[in-house]
Amino acid sequence: MKKIIIYSLIALMALFTACKKEPIKPIVTVPPDPYKHSRLVEASSDDGTLYKYSYNTANQLSKVEYFKKPGVVYSTQTYSYLNGKLVQMVSESANSMKYVTDYKYQGNTDLIESTTFTATNYQNTAQPVVTSKFNQEYNYLNGNVIKSVLKDDQNTVFSIRTFNYSLNGTNPVVTTDNVPQAVNGAPATPAYSGSNEYYNNVLDPTSYFLNYSISESKFLLKNATSSQNKNSFIQTYDLDDMGRIKTVLAATLNNSITQSVVKTTYTYESY
After folding, report:
1. Which whole-number Å values give the CA distances from 198 to 80, 169, 212, 214, in the listed order?
2. I need a surface site. Which of 80, 154, 177, 249 has the fewest CB within 10 A?
């Protein structure tokens, strides 16, 4: 215990020296565990879309299928694990593209040090073409990601993103500042910011079974804003008798004008 306290103090002093500012770690109320013996298998929306979820024998999320219309899989995400840790996510879509994200960890910790993203076009299956490859590196404070740097395969920095944590009442809020970089003589695009507020006592059932260090929160998103496109997003929810999310009503707005409202219904199975 003393070692943990000493290491935490050293990390805080180093960060304070470097930037003279540290984010506030949210204090959240952990609710009772409504998903201990049940897991999400479907999320169907009244706009016709459907997500189906599959799990491995360790109750980790192993596959997500996305249907744009009944019976037709538009995209599939599969997840691979090693020693209980997520090591790869593969996303394949109907447009012949395959996206692979590989995860690298800081030593024996659960903190993701970097991710490598590779996009490949399989339109010609005999000669697939890698269309892009990027690496993202992460820095943490007290287990919270506070900075990410996006680079291409030539180690050129494309953008830098910083994370700040605060509270709105008891709800955790994560604010991000995104600063694109000038690349190969081309001027950088304008910087932009975003803010996500999460309910402090409502677990997101997908994050429950796929919880990793670069995820901002395991709780349900309440609202989100972005200065890049003036869009905002608001979610409300209903719970069932077991405390699980039953329905979510999501409204998308642009310049405070509602663009769409979608209702999603969640279905569970026991395990």
Report:
1. 27, 11, 17, 16
2. 154
Tokens of 197: 């507020």
Global pTM?
0.82
Which residues in 188-216 are b (16+ Cβ under 10 Å) and which e? Answer: eeeeebbbbbbbbebbbbbbbbbbbbbeb
Residue with tokens 């077991």: 242
Helix, strand and coil in the chain, % to nearest 5: 10, 60, 30
Q: Does residue 8 sit in helix, strand or coil?
A: helix
Residue whose C-alpha is closest to residue 271's, from 215, 228, 208: 208
Q: Which residues contact 237 (CB under 8 A, 6 or more apart)?
A: 199, 202, 220, 245, 246, 247, 248, 249
Neighbours of 145 (CB within 10 A): 21
pLDDT per residue as tens digits for the range 150-175: 999 999 999 999 999 999 999 999 99
- Closest C-alpha to 75, from 86, 62, 64: 64
CB 105 within 8 A of CB 113: yes
**Alpha carbon distance, N-terminus to C-terminus of the chain:** 35
Q: Identify the three-state secondary structure at position 209.
A: helix
- The predicted-structure confidence for 10-48, as pLDDT tens digits, reads as follows 333 333 333 444 445 444 444 578 999 999 999 999 999
**What topology is assigned to 2-270 in CATH?**
Porin (2.40.160)
Say which residues have a Cβ less than 8 Å from residue 257's Cβ, sequence separation at least 6.
Answer: none
Instruction: Give the span between the Cα atoms of 153 and 156, in whole angstroms.
Output: 7
| Dihedral angle of Cα 242, 243, 248, 253, to the nearest 10 degrees | 180
* Identity of the amino acid at 210: L
Judge contact between 129 and 119, C-beta under 8 A: no
Helices (H) and strands (E) in the chain, counts: 2, 16
